[in-house]
Amino acid sequence: MSDKHDASGVPTTGHVWDDDLGDFTNQPPKWWMLGLTASAIWCVVYCLFYPSIPVSNAHGFFKGIGGWTAINEMEADKSVVDEVRGKYEAKLKDMTPAAILADSELTEYVTRSGKVLFGDNCAACHGTNGVGTVDKQGLFAPILRDDDWLYGGKIDDIHTSIVGGRQGVMTPHKGVLSDQQIDDVAQYVKAMSEEGKDKADADSAVAAGKKVFMESDCTACHGADAKGMQAMGSANLTDKVWRFDGSLEGIKKTVAYGVNAGPDARIAVMPSFKAAGKLSDAEIKKLAVYVYKFGGGQADAPVAK
């Protein structure tokens, strides 16, 4: 412990503990008092310059002699950002999405600004970074990062989907096919997904389902090869990618009740972002390029400027 100091001659405020510890009347150092005074002056100046004091007037608060507002500061910062963005925005206004992709500098800009648009308008359904979302009936919104596309993965296809939206269509077969036929064709569809079409065609266990598939209207939409038709948005049934529940029971439900065909049907609807008026043409182009750059976009036709 430190040595005890004799402070018997120092006046105190009268607060003394154990005859050793007391509140002395010594003044603080001058530098400390100067700092305290400067701090007080700064607080007064700050409160006068900026809006800070609630007072009873028409505006409900003292605006400050400096005229500063958070909105003015935001607008000033925004004008700086808009000036930087201006040259890019002017270029992409009259360009096609394919032409934007052909310009590496513009593609970099669009990809960065498209991220914000995607988060605000698309991520709620398609998930952060386009990973898709799942609900009780299967994939609620498709994955945008793979190369499986119902309506086509070329840049113009993606742009068309965002502009006009998409609404899946599949007729319900309950009442058209018997329960046994629905079970048979579901077995065949599942076999095609797991084994490939050639093996499923040679599998006698699902021969009855193949017969139903070929003789009903399944081939009209999914094609004789069951690989689907992008013009119609019909699914490829020979891969392992499922828009809805890919279990046997899930397939049977889709076959029985269809898609967007009634209260028990699967739901597959994407709104039109142009019709909704939420996004400008330039913003839709940005989103199309951003989604394409996830990595699943398909090679496009020659650039149309």
Characterize the structure shown.
InterPro entries: CcoP_N, CcoP_N_sf, Cyt_c-like_dom, Cyt_c-like_dom_sf, Cyt_C_IC, Cyt_c_oxidase_cbb3_su3, Cytochrome_c_Oxidase_Subunit. Its cofactor is heme c. It comes from mine drainage metagenome. Pathway: Energy metabolism; oxidative phosphorylation. The protein is about 45% helix and about 5% strand. The chain is mostly helical. A two-stranded antiparallel ribbon has the order 1-2. β3 and β4 (about 140) form a beta hairpin. α4 (about 105-120) packs across α12 (about 280-290) and α6 crosses α12 (about 280-290). It starts with 11 loop residues before the first strand and ends in a 13-residue tail after the last helix. The model is unreliable at about 300-305 (pLDDT under 50).
- Element pattern in H and E: EEHHHHHEEHEHHHHHEH
* Straight-line N-to-C gap: 85 Å
How many structural domains? Answer: 3
Low-confidence regions: 301-305
Name the average pLDDT: 87
Strand elements, count = 6
Domain Cytochrome c: 109-193, 204-295
Subcellular location: Cell inner membrane
Main location: membrane
Protein name: Cytochrome c oxidase subunit III
What's a concise summary of this model?
Keywords: Cell inner membrane, Cell membrane, Electron transport, Heme, Hydrogen ion transport, Ion transport, Iron, Membrane, Metal-binding, Oxidoreductase, Repeat, Respiratory chain, Transmembrane, Transmembrane helix, Transport. The protein is mainly α and 305 residues long.
Key words describing this protein structure:
disordered C terminus, 305 residues, 3 domains, mainly alpha, Cyt_c-like_dom_sf, Cytochrome Bc1 Complex, Chain D, domain 2, two-stranded antiparallel ribbon, electron transfer activity, transmembrane
